[in-house]
Design goal:
Length: 431
C-alpha cells in the first residue's frame, strides 16, 4: 500500500513539475505520454494520457477513457483541419497499446510485480529562442523516458546517441544505437520538425490573439404573439473575439430584464465568428426612439443603429423586404465559411499533401509531405510464456524479457536543409 501511494505521488509530481520557460523570448513545444501498469481509482487519473504543451500551456489532450485527441485551445480547433484530429486520435491509440506492452516489459526487467502501480513516461519536444528579427534559434531538444519517476533513457542530441543512467536501460540503449537511422530521425525531428511545428503554432496563436473582426449590427421588428405588439430585435453578427457589449435603448436609456429584454447570449457562427441577439416586446403603435448599441474590441467607438419604426411582417410588402434582408444576412454569415472551404479544397489553406503521422505524436506538417514523418505500427506480440490476442512470433530476434514487440517507422531524415524520405521500415525492439 505504501508503494502504491508513492507511485501515485510520483505521477502527480510528474504532472505538476513540467519544464518552465524562463524568458519571454523563449518558446517550447513538448508532448508528454504517461502510462500506468494498471488502473487506479482516482478521479482524473487514467491508465494512459497524452498531452501537447506549448510554453507549458496545454494545446491538445488524449486519455484512455475518451480515446480521442482533442484541442484545448480555440486556435487549435479553428486552424487545424478535421483529419489532423482524426489521424492524431489513431496515432495515440497506437501509442496507448505500445505503452501497455512496454510498461510490462520494464516491470519484468526491474523484477517488479503487478501488486503496485508503476509508471512509464515519455517526454519529447524542443525549445527555441525568438530573435529580434523574428527568426527562431534552436536551443535544445528533449527525448527522454522515465520509469516510476526515475530517469531511464534519454537522447543526447549533440552526440546523436542514447544515454542509459541505469543498468536496466543498457539493453535498450544498445538496441537503439545499433540502428543509426533511428537516431538520425530523432535528431532531425528535434531540431527541424519540432521547430517547424512550434513556428506554426506560434503564428496561429499570435494571429488568433491579434485577430479582431467587427460586428455587423441590425435592428428590426416582427409581429409578437400578443396582439397589438411587436418584438423589437437587435442583432450583432460576424464579430471576433466573442466578448461583446450590447444594449437596447429607449430614448437613450438602456433597457434591462425588468423591461422584458431577452438575450440569446453569444453564439458561434459557422465561420468561426460569433453572434448575439437581444429582443423586447413593445406596442406596435409605440413612436418612441429605439436603438441598438454594440461595443467590441474591433471598434474604435460603439456602433449605434436606430430602429426605423417599421414592422417586418406586419404588411405584405415589408415582409418581402425583410426576407431579402434575412437572405443577405445569411449570405454574409455563410459565404466566408464556404469561401474558406473552397480555398482549402484548392490548396490555398493548409496547402500540401497529407503526410503520415509521426511516431512522436506530432502529426504530419500541413505543408509538404511532412518533415520527419514516421509511422508507429503495432503488430501482434508473443513471447516464450504468453501471447497477445493477435500475437505472432518473430523468429529472427527477441528482447531480454522475451517480448518481440516491434516498432516500425517510416523515416524522413534531414538531408542538408531539406528532409529526404528513405521510405524504409525500420524494425527495432523498443524496450
Amino acid at each position: 500500500m505504501c508503494a502504491f501511494k508513492m507511485s501515485v505521488f510520483v505521477l502527480l509530481f510528474l504532472f505538476a513539475t513540467l519544464s518552465t520557460v524562463d524568458s519571454v523570448g523563449k518558446w517550447s513545444l513538448n508532448y508528454i505520454y504517461t502510462a500506468l501498469s494498471k488502473p487506479v481509482e482516482l478521479p482524473g487519473i487514467h491508465e494512459f494520457t497524452a498531452m501537447g504543451l506549448m510554453n507549458d500551456k496545454q494545446i491538445d489532450y488524449y486519455d484512455s477513457v475518451s480515446k480521442k485527441k482533442i484541442p484545448k485551445q480555440d486556435w487549435m480547433r479553428e486552424k487545424l483541419p478535421a483529419d489532423y484530429w482524426d489521424k492524431g486520435t489513431q496515432s495515440r491509440k497506437s501509442k496507448e497499446q505500445w505503452f501497455k506492452v512496454n510498461v510490462n516489459i520494464l516491470m519484468d526487467r526491474m523484477r517488479h510485480n503487478n501488486t503496485d502501480v508503476h509508471i512509464l513516461q515519455w517526454t519529447h519536444g524542443c525549445e527555441i529562442d525568438q530573435q529580434s528579427d523574428g527568426t527562431l534559434k534552436f536551443i535544445k531538444g528533449t527525448d527522454q523516458y522515465s520509469y516510476d519517476g526515475e530517469d531511464f533513457l534519454a537522447f543526447d542530441d549533440a552526440n546523436m546517441q542514447w544515454v542509459a543512467p541505469v543498468v536496466q536501460a543498457q539493453p535498450t540503449k544498445r538496441k537503439w544505437d545499433g540502428v543509426q537511422i533511428l537516431n538520425q530521425y530523432t535528431k532531425g525531428y528535434l531540431e527541424k520538425e519540432c521547430v517547424d511545428w512550434l513556428s506554426k503554432f506560434m503564428a496561429y496563436e499570435d494571429k488568433e490573439v491579434s485577430r479582431a473582426d467587427s460586428p455587423k449590427v441590425y435592428a428590426f421588428a416582427k409581429k409578437a404573439k400578443t396582439a397589438g405588439n411587436v418584438r423589437l430585435t437587435c442583432m450583432a453578427t460576424g464579430f471576433y473575439p466573442k466578448d461583446v457589449i450590447m444594449q437596447m435603448k429607449k430614448n437613450g436609456v438602456p433597457l434591462t430584464e425588468r423591461d422584458g429584454v431577452q438575450s440569446t447570449g453569444v453564439l458561434p457562427n459557422d465561420d468561426a465568428t460569433y453572434q448575439i441577439r437581444m429582443s423586447v416586446q413593445i406596442p406596435e403603435a409605440d413612436k418612441e426612439t429605439y436603438e441598438c448599441s454594440v461595443n467590441h474590441v474591433a471598434l474604435k467607438e460603439p456602433v449605434v443603429v436606430k430602429w426605423d419604426g417599421k414592422c417586418c411582417d406586419c404588411t405584405r410588402v415589408t415582409g418581402v423586404i425583410i426576407r431579402a434582408v434575412v437572405v443577405v444576412v445569411l449570405l454574409l454569415t455563410v459565404v466566408p465559411c464556404c469561401s474558406m472551404l473552397v480555398l482549402w479544397k484548392k490548396g490555398k489553406i493548409f496547402a500540401g499533401k497529407k503526410g503520415d503521422l509521426p511516431a512522436t505524436g506530432i502529426q504530419a506538417p500541413l505543408n509538404g509531405n511532412g518533415n520527419g514523418a514516421a509511422v508507429l505500427n503495432m503488430p501482434g506480440t508473443k513471447d516464450d510464456t504468453s501471447s497477445t490476442d493477435s500475437g505472432t512470433k518473430d523468429d529472427t530476434s527477441s528482447t531480454d524479457s522475451g517480448s518481440i514487440e516491434r516498432l516500425e517507422r517510416e523515416a524522413m531524415l534531414p538531408n542538408g536543409g531539406n528532409n529526404l524520405s528513405l521510405k524504409k521500415c525500420i524494425k527495432i525492439y523498443i524496450m
